[in-house]
C-alpha cells in the first residue's frame, strides 16, 4: 500500500465525487443565467439565479455544520457530567 492510504491505482472515490460535483455545478450555472430580484428587509438587489442558489446552499451547509458541532458539544458536556457523578 502506498503512502497516504491509497494504492496508487487511479483516482479515489472522493476525487471522482468532487469532479462530478464540479461538473454538475458548471452545468447548473450555465443553464440558470437569468436574474432574480432578492428582497431582504430594506435591501433589494438582483443576482443571477445560479449565484443565489449557491449562496443559499452554502449558508444552509454552514448552519447544518454549526448545529452538528453544537450537538456534539452538548453530548460531550453531558458525558463529562455523568462521569463526575
TrEMBL record:
<dbReference type="Pfam" id="PF06305">
    <property type="entry name" value="LapA_dom"/>
</dbReference>
<feature type="domain" description="Lipopolysaccharide assembly protein A">
    <location>
        <begin position="31"/>
        <end position="84"/>
    </location>
</feature>
<keyword id="KW-1133">Transmembrane helix</keyword>
<dbReference type="InterPro" id="IPR010445">
    <property type="entry name" value="LapA_dom"/>
</dbReference>
<protein>
    <submittedName>
        <fullName>Lipopolysaccharide assembly protein LapA domain-containing protein</fullName>
    </submittedName>
</protein>
<keyword id="KW-1003">Cell membrane</keyword>
<keyword id="KW-0812">Transmembrane</keyword>
<feature type="transmembrane region" description="Helical">
    <location>
        <begin position="12"/>
        <end position="30"/>
    </location>
</feature>
<feature type="transmembrane region" description="Helical">
    <location>
        <begin position="50"/>
        <end position="70"/>
    </location>
</feature>
<keyword id="KW-0472">Membrane</keyword>
Amino acid at each position: 500500500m502506498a503512502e497516504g492510504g491509497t494504492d496508487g491505482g487511479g483516482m479515489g472515490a472522493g476525487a471522482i465525487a468532487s469532479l462530478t460535483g464540479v461538473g454538475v455545478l458548471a452545468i447548473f450555472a450555465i443553464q440558470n443565467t437569468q436574474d432574480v430580484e432578492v428582497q431582504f428587509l430594506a435591501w433589494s438587489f438582483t443576482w443571477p439565479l445560479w449565484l443565489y442558489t449557491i449562496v443559499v446552499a452554502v449558508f444552509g451547509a454552514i448552519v447544518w455544520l454549526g448545529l452538528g458541532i453544537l450537538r456534539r458539544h452538548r453530548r460531550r458536556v453531558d458525558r463529562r457530567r455523568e462521569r463526575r457523578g
